[in-house]
């Protein structure tokens, strides 16, 4: 009974003082050293930065997009030039943000007929604001039930008809062939302008209407290919049909049209049966003008 355990503490020891740099639960972890921002900052919600389904790349990309000023480049090409990630990873991150409502990409048409992609970054996905009035018509979004419950036929959907193009006053085969040749060579200037035979046949009269108004082939080609958007073209024929109809120049002045008219035909030289004098006339005429006159016949 009198034996003592020399290793036992002589009295209860008090707990060590709490270390403010250590977590209460794990003995480690993050602590914050915050300084209040007064300029050049953006407010990011925890619902984004702590999202359980988004990848780290998507979260960081959304934070970057929310910090950009209005009008800054937010397409894949601009983001690839800004960050070391390649276009494939950036495109996948953008699709993640779209799927969770943090990003919208809307295709709108400017008053000049150019189709652009407008990127909308949303800091609150559930609070969508109405789009600002930019003077460009937008396609209204259909309800989700209509998009998901509407039955779709097997195979591809029927394509929407192309916009009607201007029609030329002349249906000369040479004019339509020139217009067709111009359309088939557009892919040399931009590979995205590869047209089907059906689309080419639809657009050729519109190009012929431009050529008929004394517009050169080079000018027509420039009007159709200038200022195309950077992203892939879903249906290039629809864009070309709109430009042919919307940017049709006025008719050429009468004097210019007269000068552009083909010269009169040059008939072969033949000898007059009456006076044996040489003259030019159609094959049906066998006498010169003097021999055909009433005074000469008398």
What does this protein look like?
By secondary structure, the chain is mainly α. Among the domains are: 46-127, Orthogonal Bundle (Arc Repressor Mutant, subunit A), CATH 1.10.10.10; 173-258, no CATH class. 37% of the residues lie in helices and 7% in strands. It contains 13 helices and 4 strands. It has helices spanning 46-49, 56-67, 76-82, 87-99, 144-149, 173-184, 186-189, 197-212, 217-225, 236-246, 254-260, 289-292, 294-297; strands at residues 103-109, 115-121, 269-271, 278-280. It has a two-stranded antiparallel sheet. A hairpin with a 6-residue loop joins strand 3 and strand 4 (278-280). Helix 2 crosses helix 4 and helix 6 crosses helix 8 (197-212). It is rod-shaped. 13% of the residues are buried.
Low-confidence stretches: 130-153
Mean pLDDT score? 79
Number of helices: 13
Distance from N terminus to C terminus (CA atoms, Å) equals: 172 Å
Shape: rod-shaped
Strand order of the largest sheet: 1-2
